[in-house]
Design brief:
One of its GO terms (molecular function) is oxidoreductase activity, acting on the CH-OH group of donors, NAD or NADP as acceptor. InterPro entries: KR_dom, NAD(P)-bd_dom_sf, SDR_fam. The protein is of the alpha/beta class. The protein has one domain: NAD(P)-binding Rossmann-like Domain (Rossmann fold, 3-Layer(aba) Sandwich). Helices cover about 45% and strands about 15% of the residues. The protein is built from 8 helices and 7 strands; from the N terminus they run E-H-E-H-E-H-E-H-E-H-E-H-H-H-E.
């Protein structure tokens, strides 16, 4: 049995990171690599993936770029097959790909509402389904979904995002029951507002909204990318072997009251 910091080591493991070219995706990929994992980066934008791949390689691990849309079920099966062909296995899935479009229920177009669900929920489902069989065959796996504080509560002008992140957390809980007997854990990170490329402009243009988040947060600030990395590594590591079906809120205390 591993002891000390070795409980969190990922030496010899292989991780897939969806949305691997974005802020959280790239940071998560780098953190997983620093813990010892080789990393496959999955997204549609190859240029961003190349930057993330260089960061993984700078950490001393192998990187693989896979261009694929998580909303395409067949593409995700092919992506996992490509990873297995290149690295021989898949141990970890960081389901990070996601989109948002802050609008009211009355303003958002139905097709845009459905697109957010397609990427944030169905995309995660496609990725989970693609990795589940090889994980089951090996009797081991760590699946970490990128949720939100809105996985468990609502917010004005975020109906589509709230629906998608609540659905993602409950999808993870259901998968925990289905895959637990095979040594696979499935958990969700319930992050507060983490300032990334995805939302940086929103934070700048909607200061009143984000001031309310800060005011409610005991630690008194929005999240930074680094705040999330320890929780990700914990859930991805052998240290979390008896943690599954949970939403771990990384939110500075936002959901505490």
């Amino acid at each position: 049995m591993s002891t000390g910091i070795a409980r969190f080591a990922l030496d010899g493991q292989v991780a897939i990171v969806t949305g691997g070219g974005g802020g959280l995706g790239s940071a998560g990929a780098t953190a997983l690599a620093e813990a010892g994992a080789d990393v496959a980066l999955v997204a549609r934008n190859r240029i961003k993936l190349e930057d993330a791949a260089r960061a993984v390689e700078a950490a001393g691990r192998r990187a693989l770029i896979v261009e694929a849309d998580v909303a395409d079920a067949e593409a995700m099966v092919a992506a996992v097959e490509a990873v297995e062909h290149a690295f021989g296995r898949v141990d970890i899935l960081f389901n990070n790909a996601g989109i948002t479009d802050p609008q009211t229920v009355l303003d958002i177009a139905p097709e845009q509402f459905l697109r957010i669900l397609e990427v944030n929920v169905a995309g995660a489902f496609h990725a989970i389904r693609a990795v589940a069989r090889p994980m089951i065959a090996r009797g081991y796996g760590r699946i970490v979904n990128m949720g939100s504080i809105l996985s468990g509560r609502g917010m004005a002008n975020r109906a589509a995002y709230c629906a998608s992140k609540a659905g993602l957390a409950n999808l993870g809980a259901a998968c925990a029951f289905e895959f637990g007997a095979h040594g696979i854990t499935v958990n969700t990170l319930g992050a507060t507002v983490i300032v990334t490329d995805l939302n940086r402009e929103l934070v700048r243009t909607q200061p009143a909204l984000y001031a309310k988040v800060v005011e409610r947060t005991p630690l008194g600030r929005l999240g930074e990318i680094e705040d999330l990395m320890g929780a990700l590594l914990f859930l991805a590591s052998p240290a979390a072997r008896f943690v599954t079906g949970q939403t771990l809120f990384v939110d500075g205390g936002y959901t505490a009251g």
